Amino acid sequence: MNDNVDCDIRQSLDKVSSQMRRDYSESLRELKLYVGQDNLLARLWQGDGITQMQLCEHLKCEPPTVTNMVKSLEQNGFIYRKRDEKDARVMRIYLTDEGKKLEDPVDFKWKQQQEKLLHSISPEERLILRDLMKRMEKNLS
Amino acid sequence: MNDNVDCDIRQSLDKVSSQMRRDYSESLRELKLYVGQDNLLARLWQGDGITQMQLCEHLKCEPPTVTNMVKSLEQNGFIYRKRDEKDARVMRIYLTDEGKKLEDPVDFKWKQQQEKLLHSISPEERLILRDLMKRMEKNLS
DNA sequence: GTGTTATATTTAGCTTGCTAAATATATGTC
DNA sequence: GACATATATTTAGCAAGCTAAATATAACAC
C-alpha cells in the first residue's frame, strides 16, 4: 500500500499476531485443543459454573461464537453444560476432570510460546513495548 | 494464565490485533469487501494476471484459502479467472473494472485505520516499536 | 392473567483459516 | 509411448469469527 514506518507497524502487528496464532495453534493440537479454546478454559479454571454471556464478555466475542466453542469443547469431553435452576434461559458451564487436567500443560505451552516471542528482547524493552501496546489498545477502543 | 509483563505483551498483541481486525473489517464492509481480501487485491493492483500459487506466497496462506477468497471475489465481480494457455493447470487472476476502482478507497481506509492505531504515538516511538515488532517477527520464524 | 419487552441461547449462512485427500495436467524416465 | 512423479487447483470437512433472525424464558405493566 505504501512503505513508511507506520505501515510497517500495522503490517508487522498483523504478521506477528497471525504467526503467533499459527504457532500456538499447532502447539495446542497436541493437547487436542483448538486455539482460543484455551482462553475459554482459562476463564473456567478461575472458577466454573459461569454462563455463556459471561464467557462472551471475557472472550470479547459474540454469543454464536461461544455456542460453537462450547459445543466443540463439550463434544471433546472437557466441559459440560447444565441449565440454571432459577433461570431456564441460562446455561452454566462446568469443567470435567479432563478439562481440569489441562490447566498445567496449557500453562506450559503458553509460557513456551511467550519465551519464543520475546527471547531476544530485554526486560527494559519489554516494559516499553508493553506501554506502547497498551496505548495502541486504548487508541482502538 | 499469569500476570507478569511478558504475559501482558502476548495478550496485548492478541487484543490489539484482533480489535484492529474487527475494526478494519467493519470499515471494509462499506466497500463490500471482507478483511483479507484487500491484501489480495493489493497484490493485483501491483500487477494482475498472476497465479493462485503466487497469491498463496504473497498472502502467506494455503491454497484452499486462496481458492475460497478468489471464489468470493469473483462472485462479487472484483476479479475474474482465466486458465493459462501454456499450462492448463494454472489459473491466472485478473482485476475487473470494479476491482480496479477499489484501490483508492481501500488505501484511504487503510490510512484511516493506521492513524487510529498510532495517533498518540510519536515518530521516535514508532521507530522503536517497529524495531521491536521486527525482532518479534524474527523470533517466531 | 394477558401482552409487551428484555435477556440468553441457538440456528443459518457467510468468510478466513487450516488439513487431508481428490483431480487434472506436466514433466521426466525407461 | 507408458508409467511414475511433481505441480496447481479443488473439494470436503473442521474451527473461529461475524450478522441476522429464530426460539425460549423472564420480567414488567396493565
Characterize the structure shown.
The structure is a homodimer of 141-residue chains. Chain A is 67% helix and 9% strand. Chain A has 141 residues and is mainly α. The first copy, chain A, is built from 7 helices and 3 strands. Chain A has a 3-stranded antiparallel β-sheet. Chain A has helices at residues 5-29, 37-45, 52-59, 63-75, 97-101, 103-118, 123-140; strands spanning 50-51, 79-83, 91-95. Chain A has a single domain, classed as Orthogonal Bundle (Arc Repressor Mutant, subunit A). The model of chain A has no long low-confidence stretch (mean pLDDT 92). The two termini of chain A are 25 Å apart. Chains A and B meet through helix 1, helix 6 and helix 7 of A and helix 1, helix 6 and helix 7 of B. The structure holds a DNA duplex (30 and 30 nucleotides).
SSE blueprint:
2 copies of one chain form a homodimer.
Chain A: H1 5-29, H2 37-45, E1 50-51, H3 52-59, H4 63-75, E2 79-83, E3 91-95, H5 97-101, H6 103-118, H7 123-140
Antiparallel strand pairs in A: 1-3, 2-3
Helix pairs in contact in A: 1-6, 3-4
Chain A binds a DNA duplex (30 and 30 nucleotides) through residues 18, 21-22, 25, 34-37, 51-53, 61-69, 72, 87-91.
Query: Given this structure, which CATH class of chain A is correct?
Result: Mainly Alpha
- Approximate strand percentage of chain A: 5-15%
Largest sheet of chain A: 3 strands, antiparallel
Strand order of the largest sheet of chain A: 1-3-2
Number of helices of chain A: 7
Determine the oligomeric state from the structure.
homodimer
Structural classification of chain A: mainly alpha
Low-pLDDT windows of residues of chain A: none
CATH architecture of chain A: Orthogonal Bundle
Count of individual domains of chain A: 1
Count the strands of chain A?
3
Gross morphology of chain A: globular
Percent helix range of chain A? 55-70%
CATH level-four homologous superfamily name of chain A? Winged helix-like DNA-binding domain superfamily/Winged helix DNA-binding domain
- Summarize the largest interface: chains and residue counts: A-B, 51 and 49 residues
What is the ordering of alpha helices and beta strands of chain A?
A: HHEHHEEHHH
The mean pLDDT of chain A is 92
End-to-end Cα distance of chain A = 25 Å
> From the alpha-carbon coordinates, what is the Rg of chain A to the nearest angstrom?
18 Å
Quote the CATH topology of chain A. Arc Repressor Mutant, subunit A
Domain HTH marR-type (chains A, B): 6-138
Pfam families (chains A, B): MarR (PF01047)
Protein name (chains A, B): MarR family transcriptional regulator
GO molecular function (chains A, B): DNA binding; DNA-binding transcription factor activity
